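Fold this sequence, please.
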Amino acid sequence: MDTIIAIRSRRSVRKYLNKEISKEILEDIVDCGRLAPSGYNEQPWIFVVVVDREMKEKVAEATTSGKFIRDAGACIAVFCKKTAETALEDASAATENMIISAQAYGLGTCWINVYKKSHSPKIKEILNCPEDMELMTLIAIGYPAEEPKTPPKKSLNEVLRWNKF
């Protein structure tokens, strides 16, 4: 899939088919995350791919807004070193790369907000997160069970300025 088409057609998906995602596809998606830019080229990330049904269930139950993780083919947890100066930006860039690459494979995703949220310590515990790492994002990923609705987006004229605000 063309990159521009992948970006323009991407939608958040919360309903998934009960269909396994191949290890090769998941590795390729994570590899795209690994290739994201990072501040000072620190690459402070570790990606934990959760495919075990019981583990997905535990992660889903621990979240406040990601219960659909249990039905996804996989969940990718993005962790960064706590000492990384640009950890949030780095994790966001890696997450977006993975979301776009998943779209190119015909997979649906949903970015779940977990950075320093009340449910994050439990998820870190479930995934055996080392003390020096911080949970940054979760991505539910799977084959869409339905065509997601297109949410309204602001027009380009509403958000674009030239030379100054």
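The longest helix spans residues 87-104. DSSP finds six helices and four strands in the chain.
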